[in-house]
Amino acid sequence: MPGPPGDGRDGRDSRDGGFNGGLDGVLDGGREGDPEGGPEEPGTAREFAEARARRPRTRARTRTVAVAGVAAVVALGVGGAVVFSPGDDTGKAASRTQAPGATAPIVKGDLTVNAEVDGTLGYGGSGSVFAQSRDSGADPGGSGGSGGSGGTGGSGGNTPPPAGGGPSSGPQNAPQGNPSHQPAPPSKTPTTTPTPTKSVDKEQKKEDEQYAGQQIFSSLPKVGDVVKQGQTMYEVNGRPVPLFYGPSPLWRALGKGVSNGPDVLLLERNLAALGFGSDLNVDEKFTDGTAAAVKRWQKSLGLPQTGRVDPSAVAVQPGAIRVTALKASIGAPAQGEVAAVSGTGRLVEVKLPVDQQNVAHKGDKVTVELPDGKKTTGTISEIGTVASKDEQGGGMPGQGGGKATVPVTVTLDKPEEAGSLDGAPVRVGFTSQSRRAVLSVPVNALVALAEGGYAVEVVDAAAGTRKLVGVLPGLFANGRVEITGEGLAAGQNVRVPS
User: Fold this and answer.
1) How far apart are CA 468 and CA 458, in angstroms?
2) CA distances to 19, 20, 25, 51 from 2, in Å
3) Are strands 424-442 and 480-484 parallel, antiparallel or unpaired?
């Protein structure tokens, strides 16, 4: 007979209901026509009646336990089933015998979580190349002359003496304190202004002839051309105009007699880099060594060897350039913008949402998925500090519906892997979290335990054994999960759903 509530018997029935229910079923079968059950023994009719009265409640309890057991198995998800041992008060789980299925190794390595953002592949930087006008001022150092003509002073005596301390252009008078009060006798060898050498005159005449008349573009680069230091950017009247590296164009003619300046340093650095400055002291002073280096460079280009560099003789850019668009035409006057250019490095420009800017740090590595599906790596080279609305990120134009973004520039580690496309959409993966040198398994190798927590089923094919090992999951990334657990090591195999 069941005891009253709280006497302990109901609790015992509930805990062992599966076994009691099974026992009741056996009793029912023997006592309701089971051929092997035997006849009812005398003196047990009352007990039998009481057993029948209890039967519905016992069957209900049995069904409840069975359903609860199915629910516990379903709760495990993929990866295995866990059951509780009857009457086991410790609550420990044991693996149910199953087919081995597929296995995967435990791997030791790095795990990273990437935040993927759209980007645009292109070439770094942008700018323009302009044709400079010829310096209309007087030649530095008098173009090899003395600053006067025939020793006459040339400009009313106001012209400063030529570099190098040439003689003055008038006769010398006696000093005021001469005791004889007589003019000093004229010199037997009158002083005259040195005349330029014939070779300098000849070279200067050639240059003047080249600059005479209208100056037109006679040759231009093509879109996509890459121009490097010392190479011809364009031609004017058949005269090559090479590319020099520097922060800004020349603004004056450079030759002997010019004052010191950063433009002289720019010239000397380029001459030295191109191999014409073997005896050149690279500084801001234009010396005889500078003039000699200029003449060697001019000779290599087939230009008159004047030792003088006009601003129109070179195009200056910070580095190697790639032509992205032509702005001039052959035969047009050689002035104004010649071409739009970019750098030669392959870059990816990203508009990173402000709420994700914490994933970007200068110098960090990123992954770049190219249009063909291949992946390459890059380095964050620049992060903007001013946020702006991305009108293409959602919302109607002009209504402020776009997300606020900051510009991020990524330099590709292997530009050759990006192909030759001038521009293309890409996907950039920024590392938001990472764990180094950790054990990991496929996510679906995790087994959820009914008593809480997780495990993996370690399979030893050689020994023919399998066991559940409790684990503590860590970082989830790219279909894998970091795990820590007693006795686990890289190379062990764990069961995964087949």
Assistant:
1) 6
2) 16, 13, 18, 11
3) antiparallel
